[in-house]
Write a structure and sequence with these properties.
The chain has 820 residues and is an alpha/beta fold. It contains 19 helices and 14 strands. Among the domains are: 111 residues; 158 residues, Orthogonal Bundle (Helix Hairpins).
Length: 820
């Protein structure tokens, strides 16, 4: 696959890097026959965007978040409402054109077309041998591209080293085996393996259904067996129920004879019972009339007793009202007397309250005066402290002035001791000049001492005055404490007098109310007088009620005696009759007959049920034999399906990555390792050699299917896995392995892409290794028969070693037109 020209419209990477909406690269003109073509430019110029679109697959591998379908979307990489990618490429001597249109205005849609150039030079939609035609759908487009170039996974693993691409050492064993199986052309074996797996899945589903059927048969067998055990004694119960049926028939006949005998005796006693019923009715009526008469008398007695109770309650209510009124007046009198007990104290408080107020005002004034003295004491103390500080400052300044005068005197005394005094050199002598300067400064220093002495005297006089003032005010805080205590006492006493004097009105009201209460008590009837006796009306009412009660008691006794005599005569007539027929015997005979009939009917039903159970048990025996035959048939089917399932599972495993494909990988492993080692030897020297292991030993000493890339270090003589090596070492070994895969693909499967792609794969290498890395690229092109590799590198020395450099810096919007 050789990219010939590329047009990108509306891609973000081109707009952000080159400031263009449309970019067209004519690789035939730009690259010519160069083998190594470098895309150069500063970071962000769009190099990766261009490289990611130099292939016909519907993805940009450096932008894909995850491998496989769903890991990439063109909509995240375009900004126009209608973006377009147009790639012209050749493969196997034919020319093709991939046209992808991405629409994101409203409803998103992607159209992909693959055209082939016919003999007349016209572009026509590609049609596969199976009739599939590229009709604009992404699905048919992908089928057409994979028919020509193989799967995208194989292409991006072997021919396209995308930026941030996973290294082979990071692949899981299943992923790398799937990839190698595709490289080795084992897709047909994998397809057959999938078919075998589908057959095994169908057999598993069928086995589940058969086992469900077997479980249903087992459930039916258990139910039938349980019913057979329940009906095991059905034959014996038939004979037993027949015997019980005969016995209960005899009991029923005996009960019928007993009922006839009791019914005959009952018919003979009917006349006597009629007379007995008549006398009983008269007796009942007499009792009812007597009860009504006695109840009427009792009702009258109850009414009279209620009248008497009402009279008693009226008398008690009247007495209670008088007693309550007297008690309330006595209580109010006690309250008034209690209030009058403090009358003397109230009068005294009224007289002394003005004096207490006057004393309180005087003591309040005394407190204010004392507080002013305390404030003055505080001010005096502050002034004393300030005077003391000023005096100490004057003393310090005076000491410094005295020292200065002494120093000036010492310097002035040097005029007599200097040898050059009076000579021609005295004008140049510094000591003599300093002494004369001290002579001029001496009067000022002495004047300062005199001034400080006067200030010291004035400060001392001020301090003495302040000390005298402070001594006179020294007792002010104690006087303030005593003045405040006396003020509080006067305030409390004045408040107490005010509260007592305010009760003068209460005392006057209590005295007036006491006189009124005495008048009301005198107006009440004395406690031992007529208040506790009945009035004339009450005594007359009581006598009438008692007379009525006496008359009703006499009438009650007469009526009771009369009705008792009549009841005795009726009881004597009833006693003279013959004994009554016992109807309980007739009821018992009827109950016995009903019970015998029910028992006989139950015996008939039990006998019939026993016969049915015996027939049901015979049917269950036949059903059990049939279920047994069905279980044997189902068990045979299960055994057959399980046997077939094992065979198909074994076949699916043999045709999977761990079977024939693993053997094919084992066969290809040395060849792949040989290609990788050839590249390592040719480019990086003999230090490292690679071996591919498809089986590893577990802790138990068993062999397990896996995929391990092991590297032998010729310098240290040690072997280790590639993921344990440094980042740079892992990078060049991974690139050698990837290019070895491409070489194997080109030489053994006949699939050669013609062009390789690489995006900053040399990032982790040092400068020396980068140059070896470029030599490895040329060796891959030579061994694999590739025509070209297009790569991106941020190393200027590596870019300069390319056969052709396409510098994107010169493609900016301001320098060249869109068509390049």
């Amino acid at each position: 696959m050789y990219p010939l020209s590329l047009t990108l419209k509306g891609f973000r990477g081109i707009r952000d890097g080159l400031g263009r909406a449309v970019l067209t690269l004519d690789l035939v003109r730009l690259a010519g026959d160069a083998q190594l073509v470098a895309l150069a430019g500063a970071n962000g110029r769009g190099k990766t965007t261009i490289l990611d679109n130099l292939h016909p697959y519907l993805t940009m591998p450096s932008r894909a978040t995850v491998a496989g379908a769903g890991g990439f979307s063109f909509y995240d990489q375009v900004y126009l409402a209608e973006a377009e990618k147009d790639l012209v490429w050749s493969h196997a001597g034919l020319c093709y054109r991939s046209q992808v249109v991405i629409r994101s205005n409203g409803r998103r849609a992607t159209e992909a077309y693959l055209f082939a150039r016919d003999e007349s030079g016209q572009w026509r939609p590609l049609q596969l041998p199976d009739g599939t035609i590229s009709d604009g759908k992404t699905g048919t487009y992908t089928q057409c591209v994979e028919h020509l170039l193989g799967s995208a996974e194989t292409f991006f693993t072997s021919a396209f080293a995308a930026q941030g691409k996973r290294q082979l050492s990071a692949y899981q064993a299943g992923e790398i085996k799937t990839l190698l199986a595709d490289l080795l052309g084992q897709e047909d074996i994998r397809t057959e393996g999938r078919k075998a797996g589908q057959v095994a899945d169908l057999l598993k589903a069928g086995l589940v259904a058969i086992r469900r059927e077997e479980a249903g048969l087992d459930t039916q067998w258990q139910r039938v067996n349980a019913e057979r055990h329940r009906l095991a004694d059905a034959t014996g119960r038939v004979e037993a129920q027949a015997r019980i049926q005969r016995e209960r028939g005899l009991v029923l006949e005996t009960a019928r004879v007993g009922l006839v005998q009791q019914q005959t005796a009952f018919d003979h006693s009917r006349g006597t019972e009629v007379r007995r019923t008549q006398l009983s009715g008269e007796r009942t009526e007499l009792i009812s009339v007597g009860k009504q008469a006695i109840e009427a008398i009792t009702a009258q007695e109850t009414s009279q007793r209620q009248c008497l109770d009402h009279l008693e309650r009226r008398i008690a209510t009247r007495k209670a009202q008088v007693a309550a009124q007297r008690q309330e007046l006595v209580r109010q009198r006690l309250q008034c007397e209690t209030a009058l007990q403090s009358a003397a104290a109230v009068r005294r408080a009224g007289r002394r309250f003005p004096l207490a107020e006057t004393l309180l005002a005087a003591r309040t004034v005394r407190v204010q005066v004392t507080r002013e003295r305390v404030s003055e004491l505080h001010r005096c103390a502050m002034k004393r402290e300030a005077a003391r500080q000023r005096s100490r400052a004057i003393e310090r300044e005076a000491g410094q002035a005295a020292l200065r005068v002494e120093d000036l005197s010492r310097r002035f005394g040097l005029t007599r001791e200097v040898p050059c005094a009076g000579s021609d050199l005295q004008g140049l002598c510094k000591l003599l000049g300093d002494a004369r300067e001290a002579q001029t400064l001496m009067p000022d220093a002495q004047e300062v001492i005199r001034r400080l002495a006067n200030e010291k005297s004035a400060a001392q006089r001020d301090l003495e005055c302040l000390n005298a003032q402070w001594a006179s005010l020294q007792d002010a805080p104690q006087e303030l404490v005593w003045a405040e205590i006396r003020e509080n006492r006067s305030r409390d006493r004045s408040a107490s007098y005010a509260r007592l004097s305010a009760r003068e009105g209460e005392i006057r009201q209590a005295r007036a109310r006491l006189a009124e209460i005495d008048r009301e008590l005198a107006a009440l009837v004395p406690a031992d007088g007529l208040a506790d006796a009945e009035t004339g009306e009450e005594r007359a009412e009581r006598r009438g009620i008692e007379a009525a009660l006496q008359a009703l008691a006499t009438l009650h006794d007469q009526q009771a005696k009369h009705y008792l005599q009549m009841l005795d005569r009726l009881d004597a007539s009833l006693a003279a009759l013959p004994p009554a027929f016992d109807t309980g015997l007739l009821s018992d005979a009827r109950s016995a007959l009903a019970s015998a009939q029910a028992n006989a009917a139950q015996a008939d039903r039990d006998h019939l049920q026993a016969v049915r159970d015996a027939e049901a048990r015979a049917a269950l025996n036949r059903q059990g034999e049939e279920l047994k035959r069905q279980q044997e048939t189902v068990a045979a089917r299960i055994a057959k399906v399980e046997s077939d399932l094992g065979s198909w599972n074994l076949l699916a495993r043999c045709l999977s990555n761990d079977g024939l494909i693993a053997l094919a990988i084992d066969d290809a492993g040395p060849t792949l390792a040989g290609f990788a080692n050839d590249l390592l030897l040719a480019c990086y020297g003999p230090r490292f050699t690679v071996s591919l292991l498809t089986q590893v030993e577990t802790k138990k000493g068993e062999q397990r299917e896996s995929f391990v890339i092991e590297v032998h270090d010729g310098e240290s003589g040690q072997s280790k896995r590639v993921e344990q090596m440094s980042g740079g070492e892992r990078t060049w070994i991974n690139e050698c392995l990837v290019r070895a895969v491409a070489l194997y693909l080109a030489q053994h499967s006949g699939r050669c892409y013609g062009t390789l792609f690489s995006d900053e794969a040399d990032g982790a290498l040092d400068p020396a290794r980068k140059r070896m890395f470029l030599a490895m690229k040329r060796e891959v092109l030579r061994l694999g028969g590739y025509a070209r590799e297009i790569f991106i590198s941020q190393a200027p020395e590596l870019t300069a070693m390319a056969d052709m450099v396409i510098d994107l810096e010169v493609f900016a919007q301001s320098q060249v037109p869109d068509m390049v």
